[in-house]
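Deliverable D4.2, example record:
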Amino acid sequence: MSEPQNEILSAMGEVALLRAQSGAVLWVNDAFCALFGGAPDDWQGRDFGSARTPGPGERRRYEGETATRKGRRWIEWEETALESGRILSIGRDITERREGEEALRGARDEALAARRMGKAFFSAVTHELRTPLNGVLGMAGLLEASKLTANQAEHVGAIRESGEHLMAMINDILDAARLEAGAVELERSEFDCGRLVRSVVELLAPKAFEKGLEIAAVVDPALPGRVAGDESRLRQILFNLAGAAVRRTEKGGVVVSVRRLPGNQDDLARIEFAVTDDGPGFSEEARISMIDPSMMSDEDAAAADNAGLGLVVARRLVGAMDGDLEIETPPGRGARMTARIDLKVAHANAGRAARLDGRTVIVAAGSAALREALCEQAELMGAVATPAATPAAAMREAMNDPKAALLVDAAWRARLKDAVQSVALAGLLLRPDQRGLISGLKKNGYDFYLLKPVRFATLAARLEGAELDDDWDSPPEAKADSGGREGVRGTRILLAEDNRVNALLASTMLRGEGCIVDIVANGAEAVAAVRRAPYDMVLMDIRMPIKDGLAATRAIRALGGKYVDLPIVALTANAFEEDRQACFTAGMDDFATKPIDMDGVASLLQKWTQTEKQAKLA
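Output generated by the structure prediction step:
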């Protein structure tokens, strides 16, 4: 090694040494001596080899822990085989970096453990809070189905409404806590945005109609056929937004719309979900509080009527999807809440061929929300739509355009008899509880009816002249499905439920439908029961003493034979996706949340004791 090179290496802050192929040290610099001790001459001839000597022209890098004057230190070595055959080694002390990495790994492990504990805590809290409340709601439902005086029915209804309100608060609190703890993981599946919006609107329709509100969906026919994303979380977002609008609105209506915004690539669509209501709107302070609920004043919290926390959850879920949520209070019109989210296009073909090009539609309704929603939907489908805010305006439009289709809200049916006779096509808009009016429609000049909230496919079919069923004049009661409980009566069910109130509620409902029900209080008793007697289905609570529902299911499946195909349905107060997956992993066939709904249980019985179970056995 030349003298200039020797000077450069001596001045380096890194450790440097030159050694022979045998490993014997030929030269070391001052930094080497400062770390390992001694003087340069003390190291000459001593062995300081490595496990493997690099070959000619080879360079290798490795890390190793070595004893030094400062204790054991981690050194990163870079060794190069020189043309002379000697080995030049440069070492850097990386102990602090390694310790930092170890600390980060430790912190990560602690965070993961805390997250697992957080999930377990949320699951336990969910169960403990919802279980007694489900009993309250279920018993209130049983009472409502019995013979009550008017005052008693009103009191029970108040109990049920208060319980539902409390359940919504619990769900919002738990969701907010889970989001804060990072315990929410997004799923991915293919779904139809239009169908999603319609399902949310139809779910909220009974509550809206009960308050005297209109609620409607507007679906852009230009939407992709199917998109990929977290459908359940999107449903929760829309349910929180639209549910808040229904709770806050006292008169008027709520409109939920979905459309594709321009400007995205073919395989990525920016979808806008909007909820518009006729409620009181939001103050600036209330909008700020939705970012940080701790900033919500008592006045804002009271005015929001629990909408605030639900909107906080919605905002955070939208953020988790890399979208944005905008909340506005337009002049003179309630509030508008808009979520914009990028979703992968799974199937570009919308598959919605129904068009109303050339059709003129007059919408006669006192509700601005209903008029605007139906007119917007008709126009999206190619029609020319005219809103009529008064019966006089509707009459005038009908007389001016006798080829138009006239849609009349049921509240105005008596005042628009002449208008109905003047147009080519007339339809009556009915709430589900107004089905009794159907039998008299034809003699009053109506060609069809539409049940609210109106589906755009049904609207298209009616405006295109599709005929109603031949028996549409028959009272709806005569068309009731008398076989709705077919396959339920006589079914033998094992109910595994440790909560006495919930067991009484479920067994009362099931026995009221003609089921034969046996009750056990824990998973160990459930395993013993299925070995003693044949059952058509097991309703298995998840959390029970001695042996929980998951362990009991695994034990039943392990019995083999006929027990492998015994239908087992999870019955739980928890409704999170990880709970659902845990049930399926344990070997359960389906999932039902408390309080049980007899229609839902009947559907599960028919599903797993007949068609699908037969397919599974085949």
